[in-house]
Design goal:
969 residues, mainly alpha, Rossmann fold, Arc Repressor Mutant, subunit A, five-stranded parallel sheet, two-stranded antiparallel ribbon, 46 helices, 64% helix, 4% strand, elongated, disordered N terminus, disordered C terminus, nucleotide-binding
């Protein structure tokens, strides 16, 4: 006998429960008018049925009624009625209702009633006597005030108690009686036939208590902690509890007892404690079910949502039993309502938690074999094998290797790496597995990749296999900044290949040798100590046609070395273009990068950008994050060099976001340098400095290109912060380092231009002229328009008087014919300064306006602000811009913007342009930023606002902060 209403946890009034309470109240009003009413209340264990009955009993609806409550707790005869009539209520007049006489009294007291002949069960006459006497007792209680009977846990109720409920309802049409039967929806009734008769014949009003929704869970959190919980905390506890009030209340109580608060930090504690609370709830469900229900639950935990026949084979029961088990588990809230799988992964873990290791391993192995017999994919089998503590059967290695290949093809490198790591447990001596795993780790963990390759070298059975290992080792050593090791390994392998007999060397062997040679050349190009040797080796080579990966890598590296030397721009262009036939794959990514570098220096910017676009897209499609970040960074520096600062900013920010939090060490250098470089142009030198402070200088020691990019970025930050002397020292240090390495291309990192400007500002014109002459000599040798324009710019600031002004005027013309818009803006700005010093304000204003216009188009905020200040001092006025923000859009961005403004979805745009949806999203984000609009809803109006009929560009609706100069006063 129990009265469960006296104990409860934190009380809440969720809306769903409020509606149920209102329904009970309305039914009580109906009962007062005469005529028995029946309500059935269903809910899973812990759903709040008992709490709802408590609230109903305490409500105004029951204030002028006789209310009896009881919870069924056993199968004994009349046990439900004993619980119901345990507390004899008082009559209105203060006198107690007379207790039922005879057999009814014995039944309520738990004494045996008159047994039937030859059995321990009461005979029919005795039962009828009990039923009649208890009916008369109930009628007496309902004589002058309504009678409300609340019977809880009816799924446990004995048949005779339910028979009396049916007896009462059949004869109480004239009595004000309300009967509420509360039952667990997932439980099998102890007396199913009688309960079915009642619910069929008496036409009850059913009430079902659904799981708490998120808002109701938030109310419970607020009541438990006395404050509103953070969204993430509420989401976590709601998901863990599955919306079950008892589970949620239990979890919140434990969290509160441990001093946890409902915030972001508390979310982690909620996840940890939630596992234990959920495990307890699941155990309670399974402990009260037949063993075969647990077998079905464990089969679902291992296999997930699968046909009943497959689950039956794993559980060792018939398929019909599986279907029944799923029905039982669904009613218990263990299985989701809309699918044959668990409502939450924590439930799966809770079901499996009780298994010992051997049993769990057997189930996983059996599941993999069953899936194989069913013709499932290797990846599905791998899901089972990856969870085994030990792989002990040879067939498992083949499955995992195949699964790794499938995972990589669908751009899931993490899964592929997991599979191959487990294969190594079975095949620790396999060079092929180590090589494949090292290749996959090259993008995320270069040091670990090198360790795998180092272990593979002594395991290789022949020189060809060692050569394949060495080639990958060399490429990874560049990303890991371990080029010295890469050079050593490649040298050793090439020496071994040289000593091998020449006979029997076919095309494949020759290609492998060429690949090793070209990789040695590539690694040497990236190592300060080996650059001279690489250049010497390249000079002895006859440029190949570029028909194979090895030939294309050779061409790309030769073009890079030649470009760094600052000679033969035409040869650089030819070699790089042949190398561009490389596929955008992991094996040829370095070829494309090197070719793009050379084409950038020859001012073939669009071809270089196209190569980098392919690498960025490949990295995005195949989740090669480090490679994508590298390509984005170099594309950012390319865009910075031509004055496309918004694009440079977008690329650099995307690169930093890609590698942030990955712990990749050396892979973070280039993205940080690229972002810092463009931030300086926007006047955000503090952010730029913070980025550069995070660079590991030890990683830069042997590099060629990254080291000097880093020096120049630091120097520009110092100059922007007013430390001209410190900036000059860094620029000069960069120049000395490049000279030591014989890097003499004036177009690559024109440190000498910045240094000459600083020297002239510090009134050290003679030193500035020496640097400018050095730059001019290199520029004439290289021959591109941009290089010659930069040389004239440096000569202009280094030379005083009209001669210097003439150099600057020539610089503006040369740079206007080049792709370097930001450098052209700088030349106009410096020319305007020089003309002001010569007392020519009108001419100066013309060039300052040009500088402002170009700076606005480039996004060069800092230069534009300086030029505007100078224009005002020269007597000019500023006005709203006349150039269109559409000038800031790339061709692809304009195409994407037009399609989106026309109503095309992102997916439709992607299919039209043959790119991914993610690429479309990236372009649109850049468009929104450049046009100064909030999103797609404003795109059509934004484009119309800056374009007049006929295509003529107009000023935007909302002026940008960058303004243009007006006419003279």
């Amino acid at each position: 006998m129990r009265n469960r209403l006296v104990t409860r946890g934190p009380s809440a009034a969720p809306s769903d429960r409020d509606r149920a309470l209102s329904t009970l109240a309305a039914r009580a009003v109906d009962a007062r008018s005469g005529g028995a009413r029946l309500v059935t209340l269903y809910g899973r264990a812990g759903s709040g049925k008992t709490e709802l009955l408590r609230r109903f009993r305490a409500s105004d609806s029951c204030r002028r009624a006789t209310v009896l409550y009881g919870a069924c707790d056993g199968p004994g005869d009349y046990s439900g009625l004993r619980a119901l009539f345990a507390e004899r209520p008082a009559e209105p007049g203060g006198t107690g209702a007379a207790p039922p006489p005879g057999p009814a009294a014995d039944a309520l007291a738990g004494r045996p009633t008159k047994p039937g002949r030859g059995s321990g069960a009461p005979d029919g006459a005795a039962v009828q006597s009990v039923l009649r006497d208890l009916y008369r007792h109930a009628a007496a209680l309902a004589w002058d005030r309504p009678l409300i009977l609340l019977l809880d846990d009816v799924h446990r109720c004995d048949p005779l108690s339910l028979t009396w409920i049916d007896f009462l309802l059949r004869r109480a049409d004239h009595l004000p009686v309300l009967v509420v039967l509360a039952c667990r929806s997932e439980a099998e009734p102890a007396a199913p036939a009688v309960l079915a008769d009642i619910t069929t014949q008496r036409r009850p009003l059913p009430i079902s208590l659904a799981p708490l929704d998120r808002e109701e869970a938030a109310d419970l959190v607020r009541d438990a902690f006395g404050q509103v919980g953070k969204d993430t905390f509420v989401d976590r506890v709601h998901a863990v509890s599955g919306g079950n009030p008892r589970t949620l209340t239990r979890l919140l109580g434990q969290l509160r007892a441990h001093g946890v608060r409902p915030d972001e930090a508390g979310e982690r504690s909620a996840a940890d404690m939630g596992r234990h609370v959920l495990a307890r709830s699941v155990r309670e469900v399974l402990e009260h079910r037949p063993p075969w229900v647990g077998d079905v639950a464990r089969a679902v935990a291992v296999l997930g949502e699968e046909p009943a026949e497959l689950l039956a084979a794993l559980a060792g029961v018939p398929a019909a039993t599986v279907r029944e088990g799923l029905r039982v588990l669904r009613r218990a809230g263990v299985i989701a309502a809309d699918r044959d799988d668990f409502a939450h992964d924590m439930v799966r873990a809770s079901v499996l938690a009780g298994l010992d290791g051997a049993t769990a391993a057997r189930l996983r192995t059996d599941a993999a074999l069953l899936l194989s017999d069913a013709g499932r994919s290797s990846e599905e089998l791998a899901c089972q094998l990856l969870q085994l503590p030990v792989l002990d059967q040879p067939w498992m290695a083949g499955v995992l290797r195949d699964a790794a290949a499938h995972a990589e093809r669908r751009a899931a490198p993490d899964r592929a790496r997991r599979c191959l790591r487990r294969v190594l447990e079975l095949e620790p001596e396999s060079v092929a597995v180590r090589l494949e795993l090292a290749r996959l780790l090259a993008e995320t963990d270069p040091p670990q990749s090198l360790r795998l390759l180092a272990d593979a070298l002594p395991l290789a059975v022949d020189s060809g296999e060692r050569a394949r290992v060495a080639v990958l080792y060399g490429r990874v050593s560049i990303a890991a900044h371990r080029t010295a090791d890469g050079l050593r390994v490649l040298d050793e392998v090439l020496a071994e290949l040289d000593s091998a007999p020449a006979n029997g060397s076919g095309p494949a062997e020759q290609e492998l040798r060429h690949l090793a040679e070209s990789t040695l050349l590539l690694v040497g190009t990236c190592d300060r100590t080996a650059l001279a040797a690489a250049r010497s080796r390249a000079e002895r080579l006859t440029p190949p046609p570029g028909d194979t990966p090895a030939q294309r890598q050779t061409l790309a590296t030769v073009s890079l070395l030649t470009a760094l030397g600052g000679t033969e721009a035409a040869a650089v262009s030819t070699h790089a273009r042949r190398a561009l036939r490389s596929a955008a794959t992991a094996t040829e990514s370095w070829s494309l990068l090197a070719a793009a570098f050379g084409l950038t220096l020859t001012d073939e910017v669009e071809d270089a950008r196209c190569a980098l676009d392919r690498l960025v897209q490949y990295g995005q499609d195949h989740a090669t994050l480090a490679g994508r970040a590298r390509a984005l960074s170099i594309r950012s520096l390319l865009n910075h060099g031509v004055g496309a600062y918004p694009d440079a900013l977008a690329d650099a920010a995307a690169a930093v976001e890609t590698i942030s939090g990955q712990g990749w060490g050396s892979a973070t250098i280039l993205p940080r340098v690229a972002l810092a470089t463009v931030l300086v142009e926007r006047g955000e030198q503090d952010r730029a400095q913070a980025l550069l402070d995070g660079v590991d200088h030890d990683e830069l020691g042997r590099s060629v290109v990254e080291y000097h990019w880093h020096l120049v970025a630091r120097a520009r930050v110092r100059a922007a912060r007013g430390d001209l002397t410190g900036a000059l020292e860094l620029f000069l240090h960069c120049g000395r380092s490049m000279t030591e390495l014989d890097v003499r291309n004036s177009a690559h990192l024109p440190w000498w231009v910045d240094a000459a400007v600083l020297l002239a500002t510090l009134d050290r014109h003679e030193e500035a002229r020496r640097l400018a002459e050095l730059g001019r000599e290199q520029a004439e040798r290289w021959g591109t328009t941009r290089a010659r324009g930069l040389a004239r710019l440096a000569l202009g600031v280094a030379t005083t008087g009209p001669a210097g002004t003439a150099h600057l005027a020539a610089a503006t013309e040369l740079l206007a014919a080049s792709p370097a818009r930001a450098a052209e803006a700088r030349a106009h700005h410096l020319l305007g300064q020089a003309q002001l010093r010569e007392g020519k304000p009108r001419a100066a204003r013309e060039h300052l306006r040009a500088a402002i216009d170009l700076a606005q188009r480039c996004g060069a905020t800092a230069l534009g602000a300086t030029a505007r200040t100078l224009l005002v001092s020269a007597g000019g006025r500023v006005r709203r811009p006349t150039a269109s923000p559409l000038d800031l859009l790339t061709a692809t961005e304009r195409t994407v913007a037009d399609l989106a403004a026309g109503g095309a979805s992102n997916r439709a745009i992607a299919e039209t342009l043959f790119v991914t949806v993610r690429t479309v999203e990236t372009h649109l984000t850049s468009v929104y930023r450049k046009l100064g609009i909030a999103g797609r809803a404003e795109l059509a109006d934004g484009l119309r606002a800056v374009t007049a009929p006929g295509g003529r560009l107009l000023a935007p609706r909302t002026p940008r902060t960058t303004v243009h100069a007006d006419t003279d006063g």
